[in-house]
Write a structure and sequence with these properties.
305 residues, binds zinc ion, Rossmann fold, globular
Length: 305
């Protein structure tokens, strides 16, 4: 079924969670228009430029960001995937792992470094240059559309999607494909920005993570609803909090930071996190936000039914 198109370069979307066509406008930020599903309340972007839907954006415009020295240093910093690795280790002690939207491969790299011989990792992404970089770091990559029927390497023990489902126009299909490729009892970890986070509530349209590439804005409820057909929810975790982002976004008053500025900020935050006292204070605030389900990101840890 093809979607009705307003402008040849834009695609009108149905609700990515319940497939309802009806929605009402909820927020406008520059060209980005967010709507709320009339049936289930999911927040999503519509209409959206084709380049975000077919992945062309990540091949072209995204390159200066993903492959900038700052972003690479930030992504490859040992603290970058600390929380993700902790969640991952709780449910998968060894086996074959697929990282969907692996970008430059930093998660799989850290996994291999910390637990040598424990995992066989594979990465896949829409961005060819990012995969080239991952490969240069020794990561095995699969250059194929994840949603393709003949996607290779069935029977994974774990599939991870770190900050992926908010970028794709068919997040439900991504979860369904993960369920198909997992072994019985295999796990899927899906991290997305938390629409109900303190940062989003305080900043709303000023928040830097309300941006064109983000097509879906999940809450715990909407992500659960989308996953529950195929998966049992083992954990819902709320992690990450960045006071520097809140301060800067309040100051910028909604002016979009460039890719390089974003990468620099991540790099600076990672450096701050290395300082022991700040790390301690930060840890306490993050834990409080996590308990209140107000931290920046939400991860569902899912087990295939
Ligand atoms: Zn809906």
């Amino acid at each position: 079924m093809s979607s009705p198109t307003i402008n040849p370069e834009e695609i009108e979307r149905r609700c990515p969670v319940c497939d309802a066509a009806g929605h009402e406008k909820c927020l406008q930020k520059g060209d980005l228009r967010l709507v709320r599903c009339a049936q289930c309340g999911m927040i999503f972007a519509s209409p959206v430029p084709v380049a975000y839907v077919n992945g062309a954006f990540y091949e072209d415009a995204g390159r200066p960001f993903y492959l900038s020295a700052e972003k690479l240093e930030g992504d490859y910093a040992p603290v970058r995937f600390e929380r993700e690795l902790r969640m991952f280790r709780r449910v998968c002690a060894r086996g074959k792992v697929l990282d969907v939207g692996c970008s430059t491969g930093a998660f799989l790299y850290q996994l291999g470094q910390r637990f040598p011989g424990g995992y066989e990792g594979f990465g896949t992404d829409v961005s060819g240059p990012a995969l080239d970089y991952a490969e240069s770091k020794g990561i095995k990559v699969i250059r194929k559309d994840f949603l393709a029927e003949d996607f290779p390497g069935r029977e994974f023990d774990a599939i991870t999607m770190w900050a992926v489902l908010e970028h794709v126009s068919e997040p439900k299909a991504f979860l369904a494909q993960a369920a198909r490729l997992l072994k019985r009892g295999g796990v899927c970890l899906a991290l997305v920005p938390n629409w109900k986070s303190l940062a989003r509530r305080v900043l709303n349209e000023r928040y830097r993570y309300i941006l064109g590439q983000h097509l879906n804005y999940f809450s715990e409820e909407s992500l659960r609803r989308m996953a529950e057909d195929q998966f049992e929810v083992l954990e819902a975790n709320f992690t990450h909090f960045n006071p520097v982002v809140i301060r800067e976004d309040l100051r910028r008053r909604g002016v979009e930071p460039s890719g390089t500025e974003r990468a620099r900020l991540l790099q600076r935050t990672n450096r701050l996190k290395k300082r022991r006292i700040l790390r301690f204070a930060y840890g306490i605030v993050e834990r409080a936000l996590s308990i209140g389900r107000l931290a920046d990101n939400l991860t569902l840890v899912l087990r295939k039914r």
